[in-house]
Amino acid sequence: MKLLLLAVTALLAFGWTPTPGAALGVDDLVYGYECHKGVCRKVELSEENFAKAISLPVCRLFCGSDIGTLWPKPTGAVQLEPLMRQVDITRIQFQVPGNDEKTDQVWKKTEQRWMDQLNAKIPHRGSLKKGGYQFTVHINTAETETPARITLDTDESYVLSIDANAAGQVMANITAGSFYGARHGLETLNQLIVYDDIRREIQVTANASIRDAPVYKWRGVLLDTSRNYYSVKSIKRTLEAMAMVKLNTFHWHITDSHSFPLEVSKRPELSKLGAYTPSKVYTHQDIRDVVEYAQVRGIRVLPEFDSPAHVGEGWQHKNMTACFNAQPWTQYCVEPPCGQLDPTVDDMYNVLQDIFSDMFKLHNPDVFHMGGDEVSVACWNSSEAIRNWITARGWGLTEADFMRLWGHYQTEALKRVDIVAQGARPPIILWTSRLTDEPYIDDYLDPQRYIIQIWTKGDDRVIKKILKRGFRIIVSNYDALYFDCGGAGWVNGGNNWCSPYIGWQKVYDNNVTHIGGDYHNHVLGAEAAIWSEQIDEHTLDNRFWPRASALAERLWADPVESWKQAEARMLLHRERLVENGIGAEALQPQWCLQNENECPIDAYA
After folding, report:
1. Nearest-CA neighbor of 329 among 258, 390, 389?
2. Phi, psi for residue 560 in degrees, rounded to 5
3. Alpha-helical segments (H) within 280-345
4. Is 87 helix (H, G, I), strand (E, B) or coil?
5. Rounded distance between C-alpha atoms, residue 285 and residue 291, angstroms
6. Is beta strand 368-371 parallel, antiparallel or unpaired with respect to 428-431?
């Protein structure tokens, strides 16, 4: 309580007089908050308590937590002095690095986004109290030119300090090794600014210092845009929310057997035949727009071309596939429509090279995803041409022989990747599959080149077998990180295959360090996935958010605490997502947000 009275003392310095009649109108709040034993308690405003009552955002910044309401929680030292200063939003200045037009444009977009977030805090601009401190944000990075693409070696750390002086100025300083660290610092700074709905002011923490850096390099979400199409606008909304929680990888599973919505310059027939409609195609301009939008928000866009399975629509008339839309589908694939590339067709690799070429030109990826999951031996075995090709080489028709065929495909497809990458030899990601099992992983995959993305359960024994061979992994265990789980079945009755629904609590406690065990240093990070059989852009937001925020804190901070210690912050964070136009799922009645620690069943146990 003493700390929060200091904050009110600071507010008095602006000349604010704690007289209800002078400050309140007919539409003003009835309630304020006081800090009591580390918990913000709602109180009815009166002349007796008005002087010390504060708004919920201010109370939660300082009451009961040394990190305030920050999400994700910082990993280094945090000092927040319980003083607030009113900010004059007409006198905010940015001092940023850079000396060329392209760099200036990146920073201008970054500044504008930051100001948009600030303005989103104000419910009624006309009622905002005028005046306050001049606010200057100074950014210092080692980069002076256009920010390079984010890579596995990018330094995302930052140091933030805020100071106020008697001359009516608040100065925020952000020091970082890269643009990406600096923009993370701006994200944190924005969270230290609140709208005081009692005094109708924008206020900033007057004195603060934070050192911060992520624990994991790979912090992402996957979106499947083949099974259902998503507009660029909805993808950008996802990127916006990702940036708010410092996620840095948007894994774009852009094609599958259901549709081919990707424009390929040398192969226009792929999207012409494969898209659901002519308007549901991602043009080169669309992709450039998404990639640029993501970079300003500190995010890589990882392209995936899933193969040799999960292909079908768009490949008609080429005689390069097997079992396309074969029925009964249960004999050939895990869901309709079936389809796999035919590795025996030499010209098929030329088509792949054209697809890869466009992906590399548009994304400039530091890492490339080649898919590689759910390949069906039965599918390839159903093709007389494939069987003849195999037997002509003296192979048999056992599983090992078809794995050899798969190895042949992977070798030849990788050669085409390396051609379009012009010798850069980017790391390649593959999903866990039969090819990543013993003994085939040793026969066909090089741990120096391949990263394995885990989609089986978090306690699957195969994970340790992969890690002990020296492979790096990305964790997407379906029992915690498949956000499409929990819903009606779509090929049968009952619920979908990976039900039940996964709550944010399980996401938060899905400890990827423990999954890695003795080999946790080989864990790059994790991704939450939305496979879109039963999701489209109209239900996208509440499927990702705020559950992806729980993943973000797990990967940024690797907290030792459980979700229970994060719950109060999560409720406020969810409000911030909604404030910024994200349709995040409601977690509790709003009463629980306003009455901290009154809802948990064991609160008074």
Report:
1. 258
2. -80, -20
3. 284-296
4. strand
5. 10
6. parallel
- Smallest CA-to-CA distance from 390 within 375, 407, 374 is with 407
- Backbone dihedral angles phi then psi of residue 203, each to the nearest 5 degrees: -130, 150
- Cα–chain center distance at 391: 46
> Helix 284-296 and helix 232-244: axis angle, to 10°?
10
Q: Hey, which bits of 263-367 come out as E strands?
A: 300-307, 321-322, 340-341
- CA-wise closest residue to 460 among 439, 475, 442: 475
Predicted confidence at residue 3, as pLDDT, reads 40
Contact 518, 559 (CB under 8 A): no
Instruction: Note the pLDDT of residue 104.
Output: 87
The neighbour count for residue 328, using CB atoms within 10 Å, is 8
The Cα 535–Cα 528 span in angstroms is 15
Among the residue ranges 14-18, 196-200, 274-278, 562-566, the one predicted with the least confidence is 14-18
Q: Which residues are catalytic?
A: 256, 310, 374
What is d(CA 604, CA 602) in angstroms, rounded to the nearest whole number? Answer: 6
- By mean pLDDT, which of 20-24, 120-124, 138-142, 471-475 is the weakest? 20-24
Cβ burial of 277 (10 Å; 0-12, 13-18, 19+) is: exposed
Q: Identify the CA nearest to 563 among candidates 550, 544, 552, 548.
A: 550
Q: What is the pLDDT of residue 49?
A: 83
What is the pLDDT at residue 17?
38
As a whole number of angstroms, the distance between CA 426 and CA 465 comes to 24
Mean residue pLDDT across the chain:
94
Q: How many CB atoms lie within 10 A of CB 223?
A: 23
Spatial separation of the C-alpha atoms in residues 39 and 34, rounded to whole Å: 8
Average pLDDT over residues 426-452: 98
Q: Residue 360: how many CA atoms within 13 Å on its side-chain side? A: 21
Instruction: List, for residues 172-212, the tens digit of each pLDDT value.
Output: 999 999 999 999 999 999 999 999 999 899 999 999 999 99
Give mean pLDDT, residues 498-504.
Answer: 97
What per-residue confidence (pLDDT) applies to 409?
98
Q: Band of the pLDDT at 100, cuts 50, 70, 90?
A: confident
Within 10 A of 492 (CB to CB), how many other CB atoms are there? 9
> Can the peptide bond before residue 308 be classed as cis, meaning omega within 30 degrees of 0?
yes
Share of the chain above pLDDT 90, in %: 89
As a whole number of angstroms, the distance between CA 577 and CA 325 comes to 41
Q: Please determine, for residue 434, whether its predicted confidence score (pLDDT) is greater than 90.
A: yes
Other CB atoms within a 10 A radius of the CB of residue 253 amount to 23
Residue pointed to by tokens 């306003």: 594
Q: Give the pLDDT of residue 20.
A: 42
Kind plus residue range of the DSSP H or E element containing 387: helix 384-392
Identify the pLDDT of residue 22.
41
Residue 160 has pLDDT above 60, yes or no: yes
- Among 526, 420, 446, which Cα is nearest to 483's? 526
Give, rounded to a whole angstrom, the gap between the first and last alpha carbons of the chain.
25
Return the structure tokens found at 23: 């400050």
Say how far apart CA 186 and CA 114 lie, in whole Å.
7
In this prediction the pTM is: 0.95
Cβ atoms 510, 552 nearer than 8 A: no
Q: In terms of residues, how long is the chain?
A: 605
Tokens of 160: 């933030």
